[in-house]
Write a structure and sequence with these properties.
heterodimer; A: two-stranded antiparallel ribbon; B: five-stranded parallel sheet; 5 helices
Chain lengths: ~150, ~140
């Protein structure tokens, strides 16, 4: 996978997480996975199709998702209800919109799907014929992994 | 006994969401995200505006506008929504009421759609993530405050 695809997502995740959560956001070491990737518990997935194709997942555990949703709503949410789900979905929307704007500026043309939110234990995701690049972001609320698997359209 | 008059007035500014006659400006919020609708509602009500209704897609937004008109001062309109997008809903609202005051709520990267909305009669736009100050500034400028 070309690295230029992932940088806009990492920059956008850093910018948006800083803006909506405040506090220090630290970027961890990027790693590559070519086989199945475990998903931590709450995953927002956005699909891309056009000059490039693939998907981006924003992955976190349930405790982190609850803390992020609570922080973004400025209230202590008690359960992962419709509001909490809408909040994590909106976070994925915000990060993707900023990343895609950068990719469009670089000349890539593609469309996005609305985010789909997956929740559950012991999940993993397999991408056929494309490796995933994963960048962990450490926030005060916990770790969010930006998991990008994109390739040029064949 | 301490009365209200004993305290200095530290905030003489009237809330932006209240008209000269003391009644609130009435707003319809059209957005498919429960989170964004709640956020807009909180920002507006904290400044005295009244969110009279919300709609979760463009079609419902147009229906509610027709129902509420003329007892409505402003609409906030998301762009990407199911059933009917915000641009089509804006067009239908403008066709129904050429004086409608619609403010578009847009994700980053929708510049072309925002331009189209402004040409179709939207009065202003706000790019997400929503910043309280920016939201209030744009909305009060549309209402001519």
């Amino acid at each position: 996978m070309r690295v230029e695809y992932i940088n806009p997502f990492v920059e956008a995740a850093y910018n948006i997480l800083t803006e909506v959560l405040g506090g220090d956001i630290k970027r961890g070491e990027l790693y590559l996975k070519s086989a199945s990737v475990p998903v931590m518990g709450v995953a927002a997935l956005v699909g891309l199709a056009g000059d490039v194709e693939g998907r981006v997942i924003f992955d976190m555990d349930m405790a982190t998702a609850m803390k992020i949703a609570s922080q973004m709503n400025q209230e202590d949410l008690k359960q992962f209800d419709e509001l909490a789900k809408a909040t994590i979905t909106e976070l994925a929307n915000l990060i993707t919109a900023q990343a895609v704007t950068k990719l469009h500026d670089l000349g890539f043309r593609f469309d996005l799907t609305p985010p789909a939110l997956f929740t559950g234990e012991n999940m993993e995701i397999s991408d056929h014929d494309v490796e995933a690049l994963i960048v962990p972001m450490e926030t005060s609320q916990g770790r969010v992994e930006v998991n990008v698997a994109i390739r040029d359209r064949m | 006994m301490i009365s209200k008059q004993d305290f200095p007035a530290i905030n003489e500014r009237a809330p932006e969401g209240v008209k000269a006659d003391g009644s609130p400006f009435k707003v319809l919020v059209v957005d498919d995200s429960m989170f964004v609708a709640k956020q807009i509602g909180q920002i507006l009500t904290s400044e005295g505006y009244e969110v009279v209704s919300t709609a979760s897609d463009g079609l419902e937004g147009v229906e509610k506008y027709k129902e509420l008109c003329p007892n409505l001062d402003l609409v906030t309109m998301d762009i990407t929504m199911p059933k009917m997008d915000g641009i089509t809903a804006l067009e239908q609202i403008m066709a129904f009421d050429k004086n409608a005051k619609v403010v578009m709520i847009s994700a980053l990267g929708k510049e072309e759609l925002v331009k189209k909305a402004l040409l179709l009669g939207a009065k202003n736009y706000i790019v997400k993530p929503l910043d309280r100050k920016k939201v209030l500034e744009r909305i009060s400028s549309v209402l001519g405050k």
